[in-house]
Write a structure and sequence with these properties.
By secondary structure, the protein is α+β, with helices and mostly antiparallel strands. It has 11 helices and 31 strands.
């Protein structure tokens, strides 16, 4: 009898970890694409939202180009870049990710973002490497025009159109021919530009609307003197910045989960492990120092770098979204729109004699599991997850329970995240219109790894996703001869809605190419969805596959390379958007906290519909503090 009682107790403990059909059908267990936008800050949650925020019907190509430039200027500050070890140069070359997660970087990265956004709206774009600087050009009216978004500069000709890089270099070279004593003379150039002296320099720079009286550009980190050295022609060649696309903000919440984004930071950032330099803007204030210009471009945040938290008190009553179907196993997925900087696991456990709870970690969509800790005693447990989750946006934890009566009594996960303060929905003095939206009920499984295997110690690499090589690789995505392929498998928890595939590649010869193919029948058949052709020293391409067979939850994405000279995939990102099996809408609490004249103000709004608007009033100029999202009890 006692044996039967122990068996029944164990079965109940296991059942408590699994989602019930009733809970899944009556109350959604996950709410997706939560978004709060104020009328003071544009929505940049994805590429389409960016287009709606910065582009209008009937815009000319020139107006589109200037909108691209202004958006990068407004949401990316010139600073030591964040390093993720994922894309070309290890920097963050996705413009939407940069705007939302970081908000600061250097010239080559800003150029990548300019190229990505310009090409997304159908404009030709290219990059140039200069003397200690990298810039972008956009083409309209059959001419190229320099638009420098990192140092915030462009140089109109007499007709009002921004000059090209080559026109600027020619004009400066000619001027140096008349003033050879100033070429390469940093201190002499600085002295020359003061008091409006820069207007006596090359004609091509005289109409610049962005120099101040003393020749400084808006951030005052660079000025006319640096322009004269950057464009002196000593270094000048076209270059392609390795941009990426695919990132989007998809805030998903489950019961017990809370996302806090702060208009402040605690000194945490993605380079703090020594993988890159410390950003100075970590301690700088908007409107002062190098950030002096940002209010003129709509910045209402107190600073630039934000530290927030993602917390999850995991329900152990069956309402947790469990990805595992094995008895005695709890598998939790932890996707985040913002980069993880650390994490902690706190639990209370009951462990039977001879039993244990084995905790394992996966950062490659559950393809491999790495042991974290074996819990062999009853009581509280604390585990530092930072060595596992740092620089990640998605991971899984697996708890395997053995022994009759072994159970999890409580489980809490807390994470530090990094986000940019700039795109947060800030308030202003007076009435502020707030828009709340939720949906569609979709999640995303992403396959993205560094193609530089040396980055394995700090980041997932492409081989972690179990690619299948045929006369290709295995240390690079490049054919071993005339033709080769690499195939990436992926599996989703729900029906696939679409695949979004971005590739940055090299096809040096006109006969070099990459065919991107997909299969939804386990490789029995493949079909081509795009062909990336040469000659291209480097180029990016994106394709969306939305004609997915009904009910498909697995796919293969294959790169087939044809090589006459050089065909290489330099970086890639595959996003599989899927319908959340337990998704839907339930009420959400939106909490704003801010100060007015040193007094803290707070507003808690209960959103009971997937789309709502409401108004927040500030009697005085607010100093923003935080915004918190969590599902209502």
């Amino acid at each position: 009898m006692n044996r039967l009682l122990r068996l029944a107790t164990a079965l109940l403990a296991v059942a408590s970890l699994l989602p019930t059909a009733r809970a899944a059908t009556e109350r959604p267990a996950i709410v997706s694409h939560l978004n709060v936008v104020s009328d003071q800050v544009p929505d940049l949650s994805n590429l389409e939202a960016w287009k709606k925020a910065f582009l209008t019907d009937g815009m000319s190509d020139e107006q589109k180009a200037m909108a691209v430039w202004k958006s990068v200027v407004s949401f990316q500050h010139q600073e030591a870049p964040p390093v993720e070890f994922l894309q070309v140069e290890n920097s963050v070359h996705d413009p939407i990710k940069m705007m939302n997660v970081y908000g600061y970087s250097l010239c080559s990265v800003a150029t990548a973002h300019m190229l990505a956004l310009a090409r997304a709206v159908g404009l030709p774009a290219r990059g140039w490497t200069l003397n200690r600087h990298v810039v972008s050009e956009i083409k309209w009216g059959d001419k190229w025009h320099l638009l420098d978004s990192s140092l915030i500069a462009y140089f109109p000709n007499a007709d009002g159109q921004p000059a090209s890089v080559e026109e600027i270099v020619t004009g400066i070279r000619e001027w140096y021919g008349e003033h050879p004593e100033l070429k390469g003379n940093d201190s002499g150039l600085r002295a020359f530009m003061r008091g409006g002296g820069w207007r006596n320099g090359p004609d091509v720079l005289r109409r610049c609307p962005l120099y101040d009286q003393n020749g400084w550009l808006p951030a005052a980190t660079h000025g006319w003197y640096s322009t004269m050295q950057e464009y002196d022609g000593s270094t000048l060649f076209e270059s392609e910045a390795g941009y990426s696309t695919g990132y989007q903000v998809n805030i998903q919440l489950r019961p017990g989960e809370r996302l806090t984004r702060n208009w402040s930071n605690r000194g945490l950032h993605v380079n703090m492990d020594g993988g890159g330099n410390n950003p100075k803007c970590l301690t700088q204030n908007t409107g002062a120092g190098a950030l002096r210009y940002t209010p003129n471009y709509g910045d209402r945040a107190p600073g630039r770098i934000g530290n927030g938290t993602l917390e999850y008190d995991v329900p152990l009553d069956g309402s947790a979204v469990n990805l595992s179907t094995k008895p005695g196993v709890l598998e939790l997925r932890m996707p985040s729109s913002y980069v993880y900087l650390g994490g902690n696991l706190d639990a209370r456990c009951t462990v039977a004699d001879g039993g244990e709870i084995a905790v394992a970690f996966s950062d490659n969509n559950g393809l491999d599991w790495h042991p974290v800790q074996r819990i062999t005693a009853t009581g509280p447990v604390a585990i530092d997850l930072r060595p596992f989750v740092f620089r990640r946006y998605d991971y899984r934890l697996q708890f395997t329970l053995t022994g009759t009566g072994t159970r999890l009594d409580a489980l809490r996960l807390t994470h530090d995240i990094q986000h940019s303060q700039r795109p947060l929905p800030a308030l202003a003095k007076g009435a502020n219109a707030i828009s709340f939206t939720s949906g569609p009920a979709e999640g995303t499984i992403t396959v993205e790894g560094s193609t530089d295997l040396r980055n394995r110690a700090r980041q997932v690499v492409f081989t972690d996703f179990h690619p299948i090589f045929e006369n290709c690789g295995p240390d690079a995505i490049r054919p071993n001869g005339r033709m080769g392929s690499v195939t990436f498998p992926l599996r989703t928890p729900g029906d696939i809605a679409r695949l979004r595939i971005h590739t940055f590649y090299r096809a040096r010869n006109a006969n070099d190419a990459w065919d991107v193919q997909v299969s939804f029948d386990d490789g029995k058949t493949f079909r081509s969805v795009t062909r990336l052709t040469g000659p291209q020293r480097m180029m990016g391409g994106t394709v969306v596959v939305d004609d997915v067979p009904h009910g498909a939850r697995a796919a293969l994405v294959r790169y087939v390379g044809t090589q006459a000279d050089t065909a290489v995939v330099l970086n890639f990102r595959i996003d599989a958007d899927y319908v959340e099996p337990h998704g839907g809408f339930r009420p959400v609490n939106v909490t704003y906290v801010w100060d007015e004249n040193g007094s803290e103000k707070r507003d808690v709004h209960l959103a009971t519909q997937p789309i709502e608007t409401y108004t927040l009033h500030c009697a005085e100029k607010p100093v923003m503090k935080r915004i918190v999202l969590e599902l209502a009890p």
